[in-house]
TrEMBL record:
Gene3D superfamilies found in the cross-reference section: Rhodopsin 7-helix transmembrane proteins (1.20.1070.10)
Naturally occurring in which organism (per UniProt): Fukomys damarensis (Damaraland mole rat)
Organismal lineage: Eukaryota, Metazoa, Chordata, Craniata, Vertebrata
Cellular component GO terms held in the UniProt record: plasma membrane
Protein name: Olfactory receptor
Domain G-protein coupled receptors family 1 profile: 39-288
Amino acid sequence: MVNTTLVTHFLLLGFAEDPEMQTLCAVLFLLMYLVALMSNLLVFTVLTLDPQLQTPMYFFLKNLSLLDVSLVSVPVPKFILNSLIHKNSISIPGCAFQLLLMTCFSGSETFVLTAMSYDRYVAICCPLHYEAIMSGQACVLMAGLSWALGGLLGTLYTAGIFPGPFCGSCVIPEFFCNIPSLLKISCSDTFLAVYSSLGIAVCFTLLCCVCIVFSYVHILSAVLRIPSRKSQSKAFSTCLPHLIVFTIFMLSAVMVYLRPPADSPPVIDRLPSVIYTVLPPMLNPVIYTLRNGDIKLGLRRLLPALPAQWVTFL
């Protein structure tokens, strides 16, 4: 007979069962969370207040920083709290809200990264028309569409999964609620909305990847035609960070969402979830901005009391 015990709550697997190790994990995640939070908020503040950094590239960086803060703030504080009180449960409404926000922000980040690749394509391949193409109105429209499409996909996922009941195991083998694990324990017979939204998401993701590859093929071709080595190096330096961040984000997302869920995977199999949720928000400020001369000048202008050695170190 099929087990039809209804699930009233979920258990999120952490990275340790020993209470002392759970506390250690909470401290480590708290440190990573604070680093991601403070660095992205600092970048967002500088890009917002400095009038000399109001270009399309920095406008998208500002959106990316805000998305990183939002994305890392959904699962990590809950995991830290659960680890400190040694309790891994999450309510069904809490799981639904977590799934909604995670899919919204991750989808929006994918679209923003695609817009950033288009910005670099126009800047390098069509420099004479850059200001006309990447106008303020166009940038706001692209950013708004990125947030709206991410929100639409998140709403479709959540609305498709959570109206139905859950039965069987209540264990989610991640430290946050994700779609594959919830689909495995759902006993609803109506998956049309879920699989439709999954198909739409896959199509959008493939389209974003095609757009980014198309952009960088043309960027590489244009850069190699530049006679000056110094100019080539400068052009590559503005594009390489984007490719690194996009690759890390997409590979970790594929490992999290497309890996077949197991009832109790080893700890090593749960590391992609950490890479997906924590690593990009920590690395993005360093890769994109804190090694950027314009951002350093913006920091000096915003924080005149900050020693120059600190800014140079950042």
